[in-house]
């Protein structure tokens, strides 16, 4: 086989066989197929799509490109969660300890920033000392000893996705239902969890702009997971505005710490309750959403989730002094307030623009080799539906210097629509998708 022929086949709208997909993925992982051919192929998939069989084959080829963990010799059951990507999405930092604190071991492999969306691994690495590059052996040990581990993809687990994910981030090949489905599910299947909840986001701050596309993505992933013998459900959640108030790596860690200590934004906490209650029910710890939520609420209110979070941070090498006193986390030297240009109700906050601005400030990558600035980002002062007076703060910009901060102000203003009439905030949770 030749990569160029498979690129052309997909470019022309053809369907790749299972053997062709397996060959492509193996060749990419071994280095026989270079980045430039793989990115051309990924772009062909973005433009031409893949059918369900091709998507399932791609998922399995990427999952099997490294170790497939089986954690049953350590614990009877593990749970996992994954988001399809959004702006201000620090859900894992709150949800994973909440769920682990009620006794469900969380074995999670997370991603770095992707396109305009942030990634949990980049966020966690704002905590000095914290390591996310764990070997399969360490991953297993932390599941056993702490009951919670959040790792980056090591060379051992789904290495094909690790490589392709980094390539897609910088080649404008993220927005594709089959590529996202295969990327998410290959990691989830390789990490070995029995119960998986997927947070499938839609809206301007997500890769799926419409509810219809998000539903298709959710159904595709739920079908792949259940076919592989896992219990899976998906929540369709709104990214019609950023989640919580903070956008940017260290800023989001601070917000998540606040939530674990009882002061979290209502939308973030509600999303975690909904996702967590799916896991608690799938694991058969509680029979209904109401009792599952009560259990999770208790874990949050009692401080058990916070204690579990700090154990995880310490076990992964993080310096607890920075977590216990989050003011010590990396902080941007320049902070300026963006005032509202007029009085009215906030009608629209375009998450994608805010995410891209965060990248421009240094919070994301333009090339695979770029390092990121954990300090920078944005903090909203108002959400959709809020009334703002002209000149009152709309958000604050956290930048490496005041020139950078001033430079992004016009783009930020273009992300907002302020209306005269009251506006109803969009519903956070649209639907729960389970196996059909
Ligand atoms: N999250 C992933 O892990 N992969 C994607 O492609 C998108 C979101």
CATH architecture of the largest domain: 3-Layer(aba) Sandwich
Examine the coordinates and then state which fold CATH places here, giving the name of the CATH topology of the largest domain: Pyrimidine Nucleoside Phosphorylase, Chain A, domain 2
Q: What's the number of structural domains?
A: 3
Hetero groups in this structure are: uracil
- Strand content range: 15-25%
- Characterize the largest beta sheet: strand count, sense, and whether it forms a barrel: 4 strands, mixed
How far do the termini sit from each other? Answer: 37 Å
Q: Number of DSSP strands?
A: 13
State the order of secondary-structure elements, H for helix, E for strand.
HHHHEHEHHEHHEHEEHHHHHEEHEEEHEE
For this structure, what is the CATH class of the largest domain? Answer: Alpha Beta
Could you estimate the helical fraction of the residues in percent?
40-55%
Q: Any idea what the radius of gyration is?
A: 21 Å
Question: Could you state the CATH homologous superfamily of the largest domain?
Answer: Nucleoside phosphorylase/phosphoribosyltransferase catalytic domain
Q: Helix- and strand-based class?
A: alpha/beta
Rounded average pLDDT = 96
Give a description of the structure.
- With 436 residues, the protein is an alpha/beta fold.
- It has 3 domains: 3-49, Transferase, Pyrimidine Nucleoside Phosphorylase, Chain C (Transferase, Pyrimidine Nucleoside Phosphorylase, Chain A, domain 3, Up-down Bundle); 79-325, Pyrimidine Nucleoside Phosphorylase, Chain A, domain 2 (3-Layer(aba) Sandwich); 331-419, Alpha-Beta Complex (Aldehyde Oxidoreductase, domain 3), CATH 3.90.1170.30.
- Helix content is 46%, strand content 15%.
- It has 17 helices and 13 strands.
- The chain has helices at 3-11, 18-30, 35-48, 52-63, 91-101, 120-124, 136-145, 159-169, 177-191, 211-227, 249-260, 266-282, 289-301, 304-315, 320-324, 351-363, 402-414; strands at residues 79-83, 106-110, 148-152, 195-202, 231-238, 246-247, 334-339, 344-349, 377-380, 387-388, 393-399, 416-419, 429-433.
- The strands form 4 sheets. A 4-stranded mixed sheet has the order 1-4-5-13, sandwiched between helices. Strands 6-9-11-7 form a 4-stranded antiparallel sheet, with helices on both faces.
- Strand 4, helix 10 and strand 5 form a beta-alpha-beta unit.
- The longest helix has 17 residues, at 211-227.
- The model has no long low-confidence stretch (mean pLDDT 96).
- Bound molecules: uracil (URA).
- Uracil binds next to helix 9.
